[in-house]
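Exam revision sheet. Question 4 asks you to relate a sequence to its structure. Input first:
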Amino acid sequence: MEFEFKKNQILFDRELSDLDKFVIKFVNILNKNEVDYVLVSGYIAILFGRSRETEDIDIIIEKIPFQKFDALWNALEKEFECLNTSSSKEAYNDFLLEKSSIRFAYPKEFIPNMEIKFPKKEFEQETLDDKIVVKGKKYLFNISNLEKQIAFKLFLGSEKDLEDARHLWNIFKDNLNKQLIITKAKELKVLGNLINVVLE
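Answer key, C-alpha cells:
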C-alpha cells in the first residue's frame, strides 16, 4: 500500500468501494455546510485495506446550534434518510443533546449507515481537535489521529477492535509517534494490550 505522510495529512489513493462512495457523499455535505467532523473507529482500518464488514460508520461532529443543524439536516435529507426520527428538532434535542447518536442511510435502506454524535467526553473532543486529513484524487476527509485511534481500539478490546489496532500498526508503524501511543495506552489503562497485541 502506497501512501505519503505530510505533517497532519496522508496522501493516499485507491479504487473506491461502494462504502467509500457512501462516506464521501456524506462528508461532502458536511464540508459544504461548514460542519467540522472526524471519522473514527472501524472505517479507518477498512479505509487502509483491512478486509472486514461494517454496518455503520462512526463520525463525531462539532456541537453546533440548532439553526445550523437544521440547515445541515435539510441538506442531508436530499440524499439520505434519518433512521431515528423524521424531525430535525427531535434529532437535535432528544438525541444529540442527550448524548445519543443519530443514524443516516440511503432512503429505504438501513445498511450502511452513518452514526453521528456530538463529542460526549473530553477524549472525543480531543479526537475532533487533533484529526488528520486523508486526501486522494477524488476525496478529502478527516479521520482520527492514528496513534489515538490505535490506543482507543485497544481500550474497546473486542477481537474485531484488537485486529483493527494491529492492522493500523502494521501499515503505519514506521510513521507513527510510538511514544504518543504508549502515553495514550497508559491513560486508557491498556498498556498490556499494546504490548501483547500490537508490539508482539
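Marking note for examiners. The CA atoms of residues 37 and 106 lie 20 Å apart.
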